[in-house]
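can u do me a favor
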């Protein structure tokens, strides 16, 4: 069966990590990358930059699917804007899962989310749209992760945590079980969260 062609939107460092996951999953053929118009013709890990995001509608009309490969440090605004552009023209965003990740059969992952190498999504967890579950991250049982969240490398979200939309959880951060994290919160790398977070912005350990 012929693999569906996928377009990657965003050509930075996160794109390189996504390429490795897509190649190893072996469900899609990477047709190319969209980035700045001025970079057209350059290559990232052997894949050509085809032009800018102005080409999204053209590729959607040709039944290509998309993965947003712009990284997310602090703000998810760029990823959200790209998502809206893709959906406006009828584009599809599959879920991409590394064969080296563990995802429970009872977990739910929404469109556009990528689960990187060695990440774990445990039983009955729910992951929203266009999330990044980065290398070695752990989302435990019954967690609810909102849309456009980045759960960064080796961070731990313990059981029954609820995280709102557009959050960033930095590398090696640990969020204790049964907590609620408001949307648009930044949890810095190495943080230990033992209380609910009710205010948007950067969480500070007290």
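np, heres the sequence
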């Amino acid at each position: 069966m012929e693999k569906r062609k996928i377009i990657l939107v965003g050509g930075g460092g996160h794109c390189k990590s996504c390429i490795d996951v897509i190649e190893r999953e072996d469900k899609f053929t990477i047709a190319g990358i969209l980035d700045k118009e001025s970079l057209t013709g350059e290559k990232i890990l052997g894949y050509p930059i085809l032009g800018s995001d102005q080409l999204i509608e053209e590729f959607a009309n040709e039944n290509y699917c998309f993965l947003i490969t712009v990284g997310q440090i602090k703000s998810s605004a760029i990823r959200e804007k790209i998502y809206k552009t893709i959906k406006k023209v009828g584009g599809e965003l599959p879920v991409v899962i590394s064969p080296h990740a563990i995802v429970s059969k009872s977990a739910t992952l929404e469109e556009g989310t990528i689960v990187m190498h060695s990440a774990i999504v445990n039983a009955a967890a729910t992951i929203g749209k266009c999330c990044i579950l980065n290398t070695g991250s752990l989302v435990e049982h019954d967690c609810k992760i909102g849309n456009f969240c980045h759960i960064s490398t080796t961070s731990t979200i313990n059981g029954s945590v609820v995280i709102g939309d557009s959050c960033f959880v930095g590398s090696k951060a640990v969020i204790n079980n049964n907590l609620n994290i408001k949307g648009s919160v930044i949890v810095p790398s190495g943080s230990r969260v033992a209380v609910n977070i009710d205010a948007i912005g950067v969480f500070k350990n007290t």
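Residues 170 and 188 are 5 Å apart (CA to CA). hope that helps!!
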